[in-house]
Amino acid sequence: xxxxxxxxxxxxIDKVYxxxxxxxxxxxxxxxxxxxxxxxxxxFSVIPIIRKDSLHISREDRELVRAAIAAQDARHVLVTHGxxxxxxxxxxxxxxADKTIVLTGALNPARFRGSDAEFNIGTAVGAVQSLPPxxxxxxxxxxxxPAKVRKNVxxxxxxxxx
Length: 162
Prior knowledge:
- With about 160 residues, the protein is of the alpha/beta class.
- The chain has a single domain, classed as Rossmann fold (3-Layer(aba) Sandwich), CATH 3.40.50.
- Helix content is about 25%, strand content about 35%.
- It has helices spanning about 30-40, 60-70, 85-95, 115-130; strands at about 5-10, 15-20, 25, 45-50, 75-80, 100-105, 135-140, 140-145, 150, 155-160.
- A six-stranded mixed beta sheet has the order 4-1-5-6-7-8, with helices on both faces. Strands 2-3 form a two-stranded antiparallel ribbon. A two-stranded antiparallel ribbon has the order 9-10.
- The protein is globular, with a radius of gyration of 15 Å.
- It starts with a strand and ends with a strand.
- The mean pLDDT is about 90.
């Protein structure tokens, strides 16, 4: 892997708590800070495309993400994304050929102690380097085919579709 392209779209992984509003909002992308703190041994660049909760990502937003990734030379792409509509975005990205694209996110904000963000990012980084071209989802310690996975909201995890 010459260089990893990271595209950020917002989601829980980037949420921060605004005390004055007693609310969570999508903040700055966290993945660059996380990778730097972990001392990774590869080059990466971060391109923030949108900053939304994934429930608010539109068809136009997905097309913007697809076009941005397609326009880059990088063959290895990691996308941070909210978990609620990650599968839909992965399906849109499947039209991109000759790139390995892995989407990941977090069920708890990266800034929170005990967040699954670092674990999911680590899984995604390993997957994007070792898998053949295609689109994948890395969550809960597993790598999924987007056509065969869904988020189980009640259990707060990803699981195989029958």
